[in-house]
Amino acid sequence: MPTIGVLLSGCGVLDGSEIHEATLALYFLDKAGAKVICLAPEMTAPAMDHAAKAPSGEMRNVRVEAARIARGAVTDVASVTADSLDGLILPGGFGAAKNLCDFAEKGAKGTVFPAVATLLAAMHAAGKPIGAICIAPAVLALALGRFHPELTIGNDPGTAQALEAAGAKHVACAVDEIHVDAANNLVTTPAYMLGPGIADIAKGIEKLVAEILSRVRP
Predict the structure, then answer these.
(1) Which ranges in 54-193 belong to alpha helices (H)?
(2) pTM
(3) Contact by Cβ (8 Å): 142, 172
(4) Residue from 11, 38, 101, 134 carrying the catalytic annotation
């Protein structure tokens, strides 16, 4: 039974993990019999009112908010090593670009939250598979840009250009497709970068989960 980390960035598309994407990843992992460990950074971040689509004026703990999706305890990413995981998946949502890194603010000049950068570097060095959904490939571009990873966020030209400025190579994909960078052991899918609905994004996420599991070492 492989152990797969799911790296969350809060709860909710505007300030954390996109709930549909995270839930689908968890569902397909569970359906395949994988053991899942939910992770998130221990940090506070500004919260959004998802009804008004405006800042709520609150600060919330990202790890505590992620527990809403995990239905329980979420491990601080700083306490997890690559040795304890067989693979890692990053759902999308603006939290990936705001909390796991600052791509939303700084684009290709952004940096990755230190504990997240450490785990991604260790997973990559160990040759373990990493999956990223929606905007989360931006985290991989910033963390692993020197390895020129091949990634997809769908076909948005502005975001693709920013990824390439960070060192990545962007590959256009449809919502039901994945892109596999065999050299770097990375799998990405556009999900809600394209949408339009949960049934559409489920196709690509199911393929991503299956590909990650197929790449786990025996």
Answers:
(1) 62-70, 94-98, 103-106, 114-125, 137-144, 157-165
(2) 0.97
(3) no
(4) 134
